[in-house]
Write a structure and sequence with these properties.
Layout lengths: L1 H23 L4 H35 L1 H10 L4 H38 L4 H28 L1
C-alpha cells in the first residue's frame, strides 16, 4: 500500500514540476500536441489503475469486522466510514472541476461580447451563472449524502 501511495505522490510532484517548467519554457502548439497526447492518456490510465488497486487492496481492511469494532471502540473513524466520506466528497470535487472547465470558455467569450456590446452584460452573467450552477448541484448532492451517513 505504501508503494502505491509513493507512486501517486511522485506522479503528483512530477505533474507540478512539469507545470512549472512549461510556465517558464512554453512549447509550440504542434510539438505540445504531439508530446502530451500520449502522456496524458498514460497518466490517466495509471491514475485510475492505481485507484483501482488501492480500492481492491483496501476493501479487505474496510470489511474486516474486528478492525471496525476496534476503531469504533477507540472513538476513531473506521476505514469504511473514511471511504464513505471520500465517496461523499467526490460529487463536489468532480462538479467543481466541471464548473471550472465550463466557466473558462464562457467567461472569455462573455468578456469579448461585453467589450463589443456593453448592453450584453446581463445576458452573459446568466450564462456564467448557469455554468457555475454545476458546482452548486454537486455541493447539494454531497450535503444530501452526508445526511445519510
Amino acid at each position: 500500500m505504501n508503494t502505491i501511495l509513493v507512486m501517486l505522490v511522485a506522479g503528483l510532484l512530477g505533474l507540478i514540476a512539469t507545470g512549472i517548467y512549461l510556465e517558464f519554457r512554453p512549447l509550440e502548439a504542434q510539438r505540445a500536441r504531439r508530446l502530451f497526447k500520449p502522456t496524458l492518456v498514460t497518466n490517466v490510465a495509471l491514475f485510475f489503475g492505481a485507484q483501482l488497486v488501492i480500492a481492491v487492496l483496501g476493501i479487505n481492511e474496510a470489511l474486516a469486522e474486528p478492525a471496525v469494532e476496534q476503531a469504533m471502540a477507540d472513538g476513531g473513524i473506521s476505514i469504511g466510514m473514511g471511504l464513505a466520506f471520500i465517496g461523499i466528497a467526490l460529487p463536489t470535487a468532480l462538479s467543481t472541476v466541471g464548473a471550472g472547465i465550463a466557466v473558462g470558455p464562457i467567461g472569455s467569450a462573455s468578456l469579448a461580447a461585453v467589450s463589443e456590446k456593453p448592453e450584453m452584460f446581463g445576458r452573459t452573467l446568466v450564462y456564467l451563472g448557469l455554468a457555475e450552477g454545476i458546482a452548486i448541484y454537486g455541493l447539494v448532492l454531497s450535503i444530501l449524502l452526508l445526511n445519510r451517513v
